[in-house]
Design a protein that fits this description.
Blueprint: H1 4-24, E1 29-30, E2 36-37, E3 68-70, H2 73-76, E4 86-89, E5 95-101, E6 106-111, E7 116-121, E8 127-131, E9 137-142, E10 148-152, E11 157-161, E12 167-171, E13 173-174, E14 177-178, E15 185-187, E16 193-197, E17 243-247, E18 253-258, E19 265-270, E20 276-281, E21 296-301, E22 310-316, E23 319-320, E24 323-324, E25 326-332, E26 338-343, E27 350-354, E28 360-365, E29 372-376, E30 382-387, E31 390-395
Antiparallel strand pairs: 1-2, 3-28, 4-31, 5-6, 6-7, 7-8, 9-10, 10-11, 11-12, 13-14, 15-16, 16-17, 17-18, 19-20, 20-21, 21-22, 23-24, 25-26, 26-27, 27-28, 29-30, 30-31
Length: 404
């Protein structure tokens, strides 16, 4: 028989182990009179303390991923069960505009604040500088001929890079006035280019402010000409009203939505059959004096004659668990589901996924707000997400509907 001190020490040790197990495991399941089997340990996620780790030195990732949340059974069909979220790069400032080049097999994305563009190379996973000066580029896409289209905040224009390497200005003025800060852009198979033009880039960090008296510099305190030698030469000097535009294949510019119809337009995308146009109305941003968006996703019917749009309606108000989330960029998959990047509190921010009827069916939690996302990879079954200074990816069981 063990001495009393030894029995007490052993009993204390077992009690400590039991208490420790209770902090990491669910209640045990009885298997017999004297035998118990611990339940599965809860894997770390962005809401645990300490939260899950990311990067090359992080511990092995659990599957199914604890930060990929199924709300409706239909979302499970869109997931690849063996996939886990990974942060593949974290050297940015504010990343935006991811677009997949099917010809080049790379992901293009912008660092709006650093005024650079990068590419993620599919074969190696390496991220390289694509354009060391991008004029505070934001949204990007590739058209149905494989040409890159980019929104430039600083020069307040939309450009298309031709196959010979020349830059074609798609749009830089409307009714004789400079654009504001083209934000997001999508391509239609008929050769048209659609883009939003809010005033989010009318600030020092992401482009340049207006001249004194302009909406983004009403009191004239911002020294709008310093730091960039091209200000006032090519980049415009005074903000106009918000618009969502369409440029047809001949170069003709039309207004799709006015500020009165949809203020502060942000991300936009088509449904897979091009019968719908989805547009996000964001809240007030720097430079957005005088009006607010409703931080919701709106949808419009699109006909063969393209314009005007019809049947405007709310797709989702983006309220979740009593919190008004901030939608930003979005893409449709081949089934018509809408994958939307959202900002908000940690634990809620990340990606929301809606079915074509506007019902939330799934979420992806990330430690940072997601500005924009796209589907990439040779089979277009990898979801790439730009979030703050980081780029994340997740393999899914669906494919993106758009070319980029």
């Amino acid at each position: 028989m063990a001495p009393p001190r030894s029995r007490l020490a052993r009993r204390a040790m077992l009690k400590g182990i039991t208490a420790l197990s209770a902090t990491v495991a669910a209640p045990v399941l009885a298997r017999g009179a004297d035998e118990v089997l611990p339940d599965t340990v809860r894997p770390p996620d962005v809401t645990t303390n300490p939260p899950r780790q990311w990067g090359v030195n992080a511990p092995p990732v659990y599957t199914p991923d604890p930060d990929v949340l199924v709300i409706d059974r239909s979302f499970r069909d869109l997931l690849y069960g063996n996939a886990a979220l990974h942060r593949v790069w974290d050297k940015g400032t504010w990343l935006e505009g991811p677009a997949w080049s099917s010809q080049g097999r790379y992901l293009l994305f912008s660092d709006v604040v650093a005024s650079r563009q990068y590419r993620y190379l599919w074969e190696t996973g390496e991220v390289t500088v694509f354009r060391p000066e991008s004029y505070h580029a934001n949204g990007n896409t590739f058209d149905y001929q494989g040409r890159q289209i980019t929104c430039e905040h600083f020069l307040r224009r939309v450009i298309r890079w031709e196959h010979d390497g020349s830059a074609h200005v798609v749009a830089d003025k409307f009714e004789g006035h400079s654009l504001n800060s083209p934000n997001d852009v999508i391509a239609h198979p008929d050769g048209s280019i659609w883009f939003t033009d809010p005033g989010y880039g009318d600030n020092v960090a992401e482009g340049h402010a207006d001249m004194p008296g302009g909406e983004a510099n009403p009191d004239g305190h911002i020294r709008w000409k310093i730091g960039e030698e091209l200000i006032g030469t090519l980049g415009g000097s005074r903000r106009q009203a918000d618009h969502t535009f369409r440029v047809d294949a001949t170069g003709h510019l039309d207004v799709v939505l006015t500020q009165a119809q949809l203020p502060n337009p942000n991300g936009l995308c088509f449904s897979p059959d091009f019968s719908r146009l989805y547009v996000i109305s964001s809240g007030k941003q720097p430079g957005g004096h005088g009006h607010d968006g409703d931080q919701a996703v709106h949808v419009f019917d699109l006909h063969k004659e393209e314009l005007p749009l019809s049947n405007p309606r709310l797709f989702t108000n983006m309220r979740f668990e009593g919190v008004q989330m901030g939608p930003d960029g979005m893409k449709a998959d081949v089934h018509g589901n809408i994958w939307c990047g959202v900002s908000g509190p940690v634990g809620l921010c990340g990606v929301f996924v809606f079915n074509p009827e506007g019902h939330l069916i799934g979420r992806i939690r990330l430690p940072q707000s997601v500005s924009n996302l796209t589907f990439g990879g040779p089979k277009r079954d990898w979801l790439f997400m730009c979030a703050g200074d980081s780029l994340y990816r997740l393999q899914v069981n669906t494919q993106g509907a758009a070319p980029a």
